[in-house]
Design goal:
Number of strands: 8
CATH class: Alpha Beta
Radius of gyration: 16 Å
CATH architecture: 2-Layer Sandwich
CATH superfamily: 7,8-Dihydro-6-hydroxymethylpterin-pyrophosphokinase HPPK
Largest sheet: 6 strands, antiparallel
Order of helices and strands: HEHEEEHEEEHHHE
CATH topology: Alpha-Beta Plaits
Length: 170
């Protein structure tokens, strides 16, 4: 019998979404990835970049978004706090909801966990967002929504044609 290291049991598969629509959007995302790595977040897969209009105000600058598959030993709220620290380090300031931002890091799915306290898991709006679903499909084609029990292909097909057409891979 092989004894497993306790820390191995604590490593989790997590999906993060990173977006930016202020400043050098690509550089902001790359800096966020570097800071995640510096904090012992292991990048397993990284989607391509996707550009989408800003929502709810399409007059705001367009967003660049990616989805990462990562592994780490953080607990959900610890990871949330780390994401907030990284956002602030990159220049994100308190602003009204859906305002333009230098960096936004969302926890999309945390090892299939359903959590509804300070942090909602899976991300409450992810199933409605083309900039999450399409890059997530790119890196994890067999992903299934932990609450809806729908696979990623079916979730993408529920998006409007307008949403599908409004996203562009870069």
């Amino acid at each position: 019998m092989i004894k497993q290291d306790i820390s191995e049991n604590q490593v989790r598969n997590i999906f993060l979404g990173i977006g930016s629509n202020l400043g050098n959007r690509f550089l902001n995302i790359e800096k966020a990835k570097s800071l995640l790595i510096e904090h012992n977040i292991n990048l397993i897969s990284v989607s391509n970049y996707y550009e989408t209009p800003s929502w709810p105000n399409p007059k705001n600058p367009k967003f660049i978004n990616i989805v990462l598959k990562v592994k780490c030993s953080y607990k959900p709220l610890e990871l949330l706090n780390l994401c907030k620290i990284i956002e602030a380090k990159l220049g994100r300031k308190k602003s009204p909801r859906n305002s333009p931002r230098v960096c936004d890091i969302d926890i999309i799915d945390f090892n299939g966990l359903v959590f509804n306290e300070k942090l909602k898991l899976p991300h409450a709006m992810m199933h409605l967002r083309n900039f999450v679903l399409i890059p997530l499909f790119e890196i994890q084609k067999e992903w299934v929504h932990p609450i809806k029990k729908m696979d990623i292909k079916k979730l993408i097909l529920t998006l409007s044609n307008k949403d599908i057409r409004s996203i562009k891979q870069i």
